[in-house]
Amino acid sequence: MQMKRKIIKQANQAYTLTLPIDWVRRNRIDEKSEVDVSEVEKSLIINSSNPVSGGKAKIDLNEINSKNICRIISALYAKGIDEIEIESEKDISSDILSYLNQALGYALVEQKKGIYIIKDIGGGNYKDLDEILKRVFQMLILFYESAIKDIFGESKENLESLRARDLEVNKFCLYLQRAINKSSYPDSIKGRALFTYSFELEKIGDEIHRSWRTAIKYKVNKSRQIKDLTEMSMEGLAKAFEMHYQFNSKKIEEIYSLRDKIREMADKLTKLDSPSLRFVRHIVLIVEDAADLSHLTLMMKL
Q1: Domain for residue 2, yes or no?
Q2: Residues 261, 153: one domain?
Q3: Is pLDDT above 70 for 270?
Q4: Which of the four, 54, 79, 169, 250, has the lowest number of CB atoms within 10 Å?
Q5: Do 29 and 90 have their domain in common?
Q6: pLDDT (tens digit, 9 = 90+) per residue, 142-181?
Q7: Do the domain assignments include residue 3?
Q8: What is the domain extent for residue 287?
Q9: d(CA 190, CA 198)
Q10: Averaged pLDDT for residues 71-97
Q11: What letter does residue 180 receive in the DSSP assignment?
Q12: Which residues have a Cβ under 8 Å from the Cβ of 275 and sit 6 or more positions away?
């Protein structure tokens, strides 16, 4: 929202302006607070490092399919909402409690006469965003390493245990999205790129899950060639992680060269059965998404 403020000249030749009171309250600014001021051409951007207040949301779920209840709460959680008031004549407490196991900090604090109140009682510290991002990325790498070891090893995992692993990864991906929305950025482009980055990480987790699930459900071809392809895909994901934290031009070229090589190898696998082809597609998509991560890293680092 645009607004005009008067500039006040001080005795020592400094100039000051007042901050909008709504912004001050929303960002929990007091007389001891410090803010970051960034100069962008003709603009000055004032940024608070305090977590953004997510506010409240009120939703009517009487006409909503029970399967969509978790999706709606999930979206509000990722958006950064701190309190949700849900109206439903049906008893949906079990649906809500089932989802809340996946939402760090959220809790059902009140339920009466068709009204459910969910609040963020965790008081999460979203300031160290880089550490949250690093943890999510490392979880994905471990997820993929475990998948490769199981698929091409003793194959001990079942669909139920795999789902539990996937839910844990998704929980932290969602927490990362919430942390990004609860933070403020003097550079809006970086904020948007970082949120897109979090979505790419979630997509990669989904592809790892799908490839592993395909291997459990079907007799996927486990030839040396397909194993090599999978390990190369894993290497591409690891290189995307390295590039984000050890940025250099050599790593960019390595990731894209690896992606192109995997594409070429996958194109030659034309005589596979349908489940094995599906498995290979997931493997290729993982390295494709890893290359997309490197593109987003370039946007943020350059």
Answers
A1: no
A2: yes
A3: yes
A4: 250
A5: no
A6: 999 999 999 999 889 999 999 999 999 999 999 999 999 8
A7: no
A8: 129-301
A9: 12
A10: 91
A11: H
A12: 214, 217, 218, 219, 220
At 169, which CATH number? 1.20.58.220
Average pLDDT value for the chain: 88
For residues 223 and 172, is the Cβ–Cβ distance under 8 A? no
* pLDDT (mean) for 214-220: 94
- Average pLDDT for 45-73: 79
Question: In Å, what is the CA distance from 155 to each residue of 42, 215, 284?
Answer: 60, 9, 22
Residues in the chain: 302
CB 120, CB 83: distance < 8 Å: yes
Q: Is the pLDDT of residue 38 over 70?
A: no
220 and 155 part of one domain: yes
* Domain presence at residue 1: no
The one-letter amino acid at 221: N
Those residues with Cβ within 8 angstroms of residue 246's Cβ, 6 or more apart along the chain or in another chain:
none
Does residue 279 share a domain with residue 134?
A: yes
The answer to whether residues 40 and 92 belong to one domain is: no
What's the CATH number where 91 sits? 3.30.110
The structural domain count of the chain equals 3
The runs of H, that is alpha helices, within 114-187 are: 129-151, 159-181
Nearest 5°: the CA angle 192, 197, 201 is 150
Distance CA 233, CA 238 (A): 9
Which residue matches tokens 């490769």?
148
Judge whether 259 and 291 are in contact, CB under 8 Å.
Answer: yes
Report d(CA 85, CA 11) in Å as an integer: 51
- In the chain the beta strands, taken as DSSP E runs, fall at 8-9, 15-16, 35-40, 43-48, 56-60, 83-87, 106-112, 115-120
Q: What is the pTM of this model?
A: 0.82
88 or 40: which leads in pLDDT: 88
